[in-house]
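Objective 1.3, modelling of assemblies. Example input:
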Amino acid sequence: MKTHPLRRGGLIALLACLFFAPLVALAVDDPSEMLPDPAQEQRAEAIGAQLRCLVCQNESIEDSSADLARDLRHVVREHVTKGESNQQIMDWMVNRYGNFIRLKPPFTIGTLLLWVMPLLALCIGIGIAWWTFRRPRAPTPPPLSDEERRRLSDLTETR
Amino acid sequence: MSEQPSSPTRRRLLMAAPLVVAGGVGVGFWRMLSGMTKGSFDPHDIHAPALNRPVPDFALPDQAPGTGFSAADLRGLKAPVLVNYFASWCIPCVAEMPVLNVLKDRLPIWGIAYKDKPEHALGFVQRAGNPYARIASDHDGLAAIDWGVSGVPETFLVGPGGIIRWHTASPITEAMITNTIMPLADSLKP
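Predicted structure (tokens):
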């Protein structure tokens, strides 16, 4: 069965929509939480998207509707209004909840393996590929001897 | 180039490698799972960095039937106290109350009602029995954030001078009291 080109296009569009939907959905539940200044609100959302909700643990505080996430969103907005830098707000959070609150872990000894893993995997892959292709697939057999040639012609002769 | 037949040792090594890796992964998972049942490993643990730090600055109002307290009250202490975040809407808090009501005679417990209506917190303490020497109300839950609290119940052992010496984000159990809290509290007593 052949896929109709239009149907395939539709499928790609659908997948694209599903893929980008979380980016659009990244917003607070209650509009009254939002800061009046759009630039400040955007900054607060960007910071919040980097902070883990400590209740749901796999969502950012911007995505989560847990009570604590709402409180933390409020705190982030307070600090943004005070004119603190992203780094200052991040440090404030890490000081209270540790690096666990950062969805993107910092580069430390403990997270070294995590960060270098893609590079390490690539190196191992290249190593295996090089090691495999370096060896000849099968060695070329030595030319046939006279005896073997005679047998071959005997065998291939029409009976 | 002549073909190098792979030696039996090498073949055996290649055969064993995946088994060794699978075995290693298996042992790792087994240790994690057994740690989870024994309570020594908690994948949800936040590892909040409160330990060995002074209590954060806060001042919280009274929660009936107790009196509120502030960071200064804790920093002025000469003997350890247990600070317990609770809420009337929290089921594990109900579960740990009998344990706290026994512990209160050996170690003073100060409670903080987290995001709770004062009348609900009062009702909770009256129903479950009051283990608290003092009770403060953290109505908007903002002091809790300074403590690094991620939910209730959460408990801190505060040593002399207001230094946090121990912390758990799980309900207090008798085993915790016997094995950890009381030995540590006794060592902190002047």
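The CA atoms of residues 26 and 102 of chain A lie 17 Å apart.
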